[in-house]
Amino acid sequence: MDVKQVWAVYFSGTGTTEKVVTSIAAFTAEHLHVPNETLDFTLPAARTLNYQFSSDDLVIFGTPVIAGRVPNVLLPFLNGHFQAEQSMAVPVVLYGNRNFDDALIELREILEGNGFRTIAGGAFIGEHSFSKSLAAGRPDASDLKEAAAFSGKIAEKVTGLNELPSEPVFVRGQLPLSPYYTPRDRNGVHINILKVKPKTSEKCTHCGLCADVCPMGSISKEDVTRYNGICIKCCACVKKCPVGAKYYDDEGYLYHQHELEDLYTRRAEPELFL
User: Fold this and answer.
1) DSSP state letters, the chain
2) What integer pLDDT is reported at residue 65 of this predicted model?
3) pTM of the predicted model, to two decimals?
4) Which domains, and CATH codes, for the chain?
5) Do 257 and 219 meet the contact criterion of CB atoms below 8 Å apart?
6) C-alpha span between 28 and 270 (Å, rounded)
7) How far apart are CA 243 and CA 236, in angstroms?
8) Phi-psi category of 68—alpha, beta or left, where left has phi over 0 and alpha has psi -120 to 50?
């Protein structure tokens, strides 16, 4: 198949999905000797536009995993603002060391529904948004080495195709999709953190960076201690604050964070599908 351009398309609150997707796209473009472009739809303004891809585009498309699925706040945008003319695509999801559950197959189905044709897929690991110790520093050098090898296999598959596959790429997951993962305490009682928002400590210098990086545009630029919308717990404001002024103190949130850190300390490895 003829490819004239490779795209890195992604949502990435703390930069981990960005790192993996842009690496795969750059290496794949290098293998195919074509240009590489980036489309970052993390911030709200980018999600007001419509995007179209042609039959000679190859799109590496990435989202984080939240509660074992593609973030539900992105679904209207993903289903309504992308259109492809039989463009080849590689769905990529990034999760925080627990599990990606049905997120990858969900993203695959969204892309196929928008006119993309999926030829590969991957689930990678990044430092958990809630934690500085769970999958700390990932994606790391080993992950990026896997991404580079994956890119070579994607390029090899593309150049070996005479026509688009008749079926979507096989990935791990189930259809119909499983319910969203819900955190529970040790007695099995549901921990509801949907409305929890970060607090702001006295260390805050009111630089406004947290408002600038919030993917939901929910932090007030006039008063960064106030919220004008929902919090998806991506922790962009927490992890990107230069003085560490943003934090969570909700009891349920902290319980869930510590449970994740206790239960999922093993090193999960990327899962790749071709």
Assistant:
1) ---SEEEEEE--SSSHHHHHHHHHHHHHHHHHT--EEEEE--SGGGGGS-EEE-TTEEEEEEEE-BTTBS-GGGHHHHHHSEEESS-EEEEEEEE-SS--TTHHHHHHHHHHHTT-EE--EEEEE---TT-SSTTTT-S-HHHHHHHHHHHHHHHHHHHH-SS--SSPPP-S--SSPPPPP--B-TT--B---TT---EE-TT-----HHHHH-TT--B-SS-TT-BSS------HHHHH-TT--EE---HHHHHHHHHHHHH--S----EEE-
2) 98
3) 0.95
4) 5-178+267-273 (3.40.50.360), 199-249 (3.30.70.20)
5) no
6) 18
7) 13
8) left
Say how far apart CA 164 and CA 46 lie, in whole Å. 30
pLDDT computed for residue 73 by the predictor:
96
Confidence of residue 183 (pLDDT cuts 50, 70, 90): confident
